[in-house]
């Protein structure tokens, strides 16, 4: 029995050991499965190799992209640094340019009146004077005596007649106006060439200004372009006039300067007193829905008041009175039965504080004011101070000084040239401004009567210089050397100089016309003077067209 069991166990062990799964033979089916496995392993290896190549390519692309980005960043950084350097140089250049320009303007403004301290200041003639023959002293003296003095003898009598009639007309105007509602009219004042004794061109026209004030309890509060308020550049020389109640804002209350809440009330100014009906302000000749005085409304009121005043006193006079020009509301004309007539301008103005500077509504026959200006912006006129300055300086000049003669001759030549070639932007006011500068710049002895020729040349040279630079500064505005005897307001002396030629900088057509007219006047000057001088032969006047008076 044990031997049998042993044999059975040995048989089982032998069968297990010789099983083909443990020891496969070479001709079995196992090698086929191995080849498939090997093939799959090769395919797997190939796919892994391709994947490795793809990953390597992606890594290379990423590295190339990174390098490109780094290179671009370097380029951008370099460009930024270069731009910063360029911007710094540009800014530095602009700062240097502005400093130079400011220094140049300050130098010019500081020396804008130092034009005649020495004879060498005007020793060099400009291009416009090449080939120009100036009349000699004898010709100028003969021309002035026969042509200028012969036509200005009646000015004094005409001024006296116009002033007397204007006073009577204004007195009648006060009688027809409502003292409680209408504007209060003051006495008139004569200004301009007729009252400075240098007007030469006919017809003679007297310019009278009439200050007026609002009825009680109102008053005018004036603001100018140089008072610190914001005025646009094209409004230099202008100001506004606000109609207020007497004492309004006098306490310095901040209720008009800050926005109070709806539940807050100013104890000094009630809402009833601060808000006035629009119709009330329009009755005070203000612009619609504002408190600012309207120049057009003022002129309409003034024309109606003058018409009523004339109807009241017309029976006293043996002539007719009418408005002569539609574009100049204050232009009046006296017509006698004989056919003769006398023209004069009666223009309402508003006094600036307690000075003799006035806001003027319209400039008759002048291009000083802008063509399309707002009716709430009023131009400032310094005509009263100009007249006083000429009178003050005249007392220090030699007897029979030539300053007025120079202005008269130049005004005559300019007027004759405009009658030949048409009007230009250059006006008699510009010519008078040139004379005012020279009067202050040159010593008194330079205006002796025998120096008429030299001073006339000085005026022409100075005017040529101003035309070339497009700068002719107002005599009073920005002039710190105004004589103290005039009592001129300090606010205008400290203001920036006012360039009277500024409008022509933007209007090249007008500027070109003005320069051409000036050059034509220079070329025709000798012939014009000879034409109106009796003893000069006619052969010398062939170079210009005739325009007899």
From TrEMBL:
Position of the signal peptide: 1-20
InterPro entries per record: ITPRIP-like, Mab-21_HhH/H2TH-like, MAB21L/cGLR
Keyword Iron listed: no
Pfam family, one: Mab-21_C
Major site of localization recorded for this protein: membrane
Main function: Enhances Ca(2+)-mediated inhibition of inositol 1,4,5-triphosphate receptor (ITPR) Ca(2+) release.
Protein name: Inositol 1,4,5-trisphosphate receptor-interacting protein
């Amino acid at each position: 029995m044990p031997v049998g069991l042993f044999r059975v166990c040995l048989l089982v062990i032998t069968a297990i050991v010789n099983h083909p799964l443990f020891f496969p033979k070479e001709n079995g089916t196992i090698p086929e499965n191995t080849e498939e496995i090997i093939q799959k392993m090769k395919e797997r290896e190939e796919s892994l190799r391709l994947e490795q190549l793809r990953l390597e390519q992606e890594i290379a692309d990423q590295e190339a992209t990174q390098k490109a980005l780094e290179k671009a960043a370097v380029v951008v950084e370099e460009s930024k640094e270069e731009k910063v350097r360029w911007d710094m140089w540009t800014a530095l250049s602009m700062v240097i340019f502005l400093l130079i320009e400011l220094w140049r303007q300050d130098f010019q403004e500081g020396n804008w009146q130092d034009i005649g301290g020495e004879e060498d200041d005007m020793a060099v003639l400009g291009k416009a004077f090449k080939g120009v023959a100036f009349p000699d002293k004898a010709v100028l003296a003969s021309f002035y005596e026969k042509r200028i003095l012969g036509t200005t003898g009646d000015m004094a009598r005409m001024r006296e007649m116009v002033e007397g009639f204007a006073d009577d007309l204004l007195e009648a105007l006060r009688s027809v106006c409502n003292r409680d509602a209408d504007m209060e009219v003051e006495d008139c004042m004569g200004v301009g060439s007729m009252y400075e004794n240098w007007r030469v061109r006919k017809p003679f026209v007297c310019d009278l200004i009439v200050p007026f004030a609002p009825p009680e309890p109102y008053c005018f509060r004036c603001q100018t372009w140089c008072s610190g308020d914001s005025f646009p550049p094209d409004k230099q020389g202008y100001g506004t006039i606000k109609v207020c109640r007497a004492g309004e804002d006098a306490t310095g209350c901040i209720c008009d300067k800050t926005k109070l809440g709806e539940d807050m009330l100013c104890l000094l100014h009630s809402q009833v007193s601060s808000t006035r009906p629009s119709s009330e302000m329009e009755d005070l000749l203000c612009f619609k829905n504002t408190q600012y005085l309207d120049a057009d409304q003022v002129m309409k009121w003034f024309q109606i008041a003058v018409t009523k005043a004339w109807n009241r006193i017309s029976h006293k006079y043996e002539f007719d009175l009418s408005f002569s020009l539609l574009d100049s509301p204050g232009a009046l004309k006296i017509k006698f039965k004989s056919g003769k007539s006398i023209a004069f301008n009666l223009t309402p103005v508003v006094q600036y504080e307690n000075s003799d500077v006035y806001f003027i509504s319209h400039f008759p026959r002048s291009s000083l004011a802008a063509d399309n200006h707002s009716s709430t912006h009023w131009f400032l006129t310094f005509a009263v101070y100009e007249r006083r300055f000429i009178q003050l300086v005249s007392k220090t000049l030699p007897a029979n000084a030539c300053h007025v003669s120079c202005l008269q001759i130049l005004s005559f030549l300019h007027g004759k040239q405009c009658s030949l070639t048409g009007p230009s932007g250059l006006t008699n006011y510009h010519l008078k401004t040139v004379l005012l500068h020279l009067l202050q710049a040159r010593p008194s002895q330079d205006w002796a009567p025998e120096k008429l020729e030299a001073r006339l040349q000085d005026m022409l040279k100075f005017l040529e210089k101003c035309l070339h630079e497009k700068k002719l500064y107002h005599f009073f505005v920005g002039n710190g050397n105004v004589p103290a005897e005039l009592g001129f307001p300090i606010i205008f002396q400290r203001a920036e100089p006012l360039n009277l030629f500024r409008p022509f900088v933007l209007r090249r057509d007008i500027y070109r016309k003005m320069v051409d007219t000036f050059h034509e006047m220079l070329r025709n000057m000798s012939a014009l003077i000879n034409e109106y001088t009796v003893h000069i032969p006619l052969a010398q006047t062939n170079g210009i067209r005739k325009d007899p008076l």
